[in-house]
Write a structure and sequence with these properties.
The chain is mainly beta. It folds into two domains: about 160 residues, Deoxyuridine 5'-Triphosphate Nucleotidohydrolase, Chain A (Distorted Sandwich); about 190 residues, Deoxyuridine triphosphatase (dUTPase) (Deoxyuridine 5'-Triphosphate Nucleotidohydrolase, Chain A, Distorted Sandwich). The chain contains five helices and 28 strands. Strands 2, 4, 5, 7, 9 and 11 form a six-stranded antiparallel β-sheet that branches. A hairpin with a 2-residue loop joins strand 14 and strand 15. The longest helix is centred in the middle third of the chain and has 11 residues. The protein binds deoxyuridine-5'-triphosphate (DUT). Deoxyuridine-5'-triphosphate binds next to helix 3, strand 24 and strand 25. InterPro entries: DCD_C, DCD_N, dUTPase-like_sf, dUTPase_trimeric. GO terms for molecular function: dCTP deaminase activity. It is an enzyme of class 3 (hydrolase). This is 2'-deoxycytidine 5'-triphosphate deaminase. Keywords: Hydrolase, Nucleotide metabolism.
């Protein structure tokens, strides 16, 4: 059964491409369409700009780039993007959305785990990562590596887009009903409010040493975003252990990879998103809002027990995180239909059934 409203599933995204609503300089990669999203690919050049900017109602991104570009970098054979710099890259994909269809973008989980700040921009935009219904035009990605310098090239996939018709977020009551039927967040006392279900932090750790997470090192070598298992964990990360304290002091300006205490489940007819920042839970933030795919944590898709990996930063002041503290919320939205492929089922998914897991670029041992 297909709903009129909701997030488009893989088949409908393929159809957008077939109908010319979604265009690209090159045919789509085989695994570019995900269960509820499309990965976006970098085009052949990057513009280093002085600072981030918003196009605003009156302007196209290209107009602003004429004024703000410091220099242009060729991405055909790969190039290094340095930490602390801001780059704008025209994407290979462009849109001609129907009047009733909008879209939203997000860094891929692998991008967030590398602390690469990315946002999608469109012409006349007044918000990042939001593409208004009926938008017709190019897509651009703002990229600013925060912790590690990275190598990217034409075709690298750092961000993803979801398409939606109407609004179909679940209310608190609907969320509680779904949780009772399907166990969304493995907790005896689910904390549901403001349309989201709470996730808390695990600081007891796992394994004999009580590994609780990782802190990014500084002045590292370069990470190639297109290479899996190519980098040694300890060259880039400092492991953090609980040592019986069940707490962690976040240093301002440091980047942490931590994990949720609860297992998370996204049933096949739903998509979820982790809300990026909730000032009510403290002066720190889960740094990158994350898309959670239909089938993530779903038992029949091999996902039982999947935790959420959290990218965390403290604001301004050092902050003590304690085991079990609420750190973010998952909001759930209806899919228009069940995706043909669920996360984890033959899609080469990297993070199904994950515990505390760094991005796919690192090898363990
Ligand atoms: O902050 C987040 C965001 C997502 N996820 C999980 C849920 C999601 O379904 C999965 C994969 O996310 P995404 O598709 O963004 O990752 P990817 O980098 O494209 O990995 P893959 O190659 O597995 O698709 O990672 C997290 O644990 N934390």
């Amino acid at each position: 059964m297909t709903r009129t409203t909701g997030i488009l599933a893989d088949r409908a995204i393929d159809a957008l491409f077939g109908e010319g609503r979604l265009k690209s300089e090159a045919p789509l990669d085989a695994d570019q369409v995900q269960p509820a999203s499309l990965d976006l690919r970098l085009g052949s050049k990057a513009m280093r700009v002085r600072a981030s900017f918003m196009p605003g109602r009156e302007h196209k991104v290209a107009d602003k780039l004429e004024r703000l570009t410091l220099h242009e970098i060729d991405l055909e054979d790969g190039a290094v993007l340095e930490t602390g710099c801001v780059y704008i890259v025209p994407l290979m994909e462009s849109l001609d959305l129907p009047q009733d269809m909008s879209a939203s973008a997000n860094p891929k989980s692998s991008t967030g785990r590398l602390d690469i700040f990315t946002r999608v921009m469109v012409d006349h935009a007044q918000e990042f990562d939001k593409i208004p219904a009926g938008y017709r035009g190019p897509l651009y990605l703002e990229i600013s590596p925060r912790t590690f310098p990275v190598i990217v090239r034409r075709g690298s996939r750092l961000s993803q887009i979801r398409f939606r018709v109407g609004h179909s977020l679940l209310s608190d009551t609907e969320l509680l009903d779904l949780h009772q039927a399907e166990t969304l967040v493995a907790s005896e006392m689910p904390n549901v409010s403001g349309g989201g279900i709470a996730l808390s932090i695990d600081l007891k750790g796992s394994g004999p040493d009580g590994l609780i997470g990782y802190r990014g090192k500084h002045h590292t070598s370069v990470i190639d975003v297109d290479r899996k298992a190519a980098h040694d964990v300890l060259d880039f990360w400092e492991p953090l252990y609980s040592r019986g304290r069940d707490e962690l002091i976040l240093d301002p300006d440091e980047f942490y990879i931590l994990v949720s205490r609860e297992a998370v489940h996204v049933p096949p007819l739903f998509a979820a998103e982790m809300t990026p920042y909730d000032p009510l839970v403290g002066e720190f933030r889960v740094h990158y809002a994350g898309f959670f795919d239909p089938g993530f944590g779903h038992a029949s898709a091999g996902g039982a027990g999947s935790r959420a990996v959290l990218e965390v930063r403290s604001h301004e002041v050092p902050f003590i995180l304690e085991h079990g503290q609420v750190i973010g919320r998952l909001v759930y939205e209806h899919m228009q239909e069940r995706p043909a492929g669920l996360y984890g089922t033959g899609l080469g998914s990297s993070y199904q059934a994950q515990g505390l897991k760094l991005s796919k670029h690192f090898r363990v041992g």
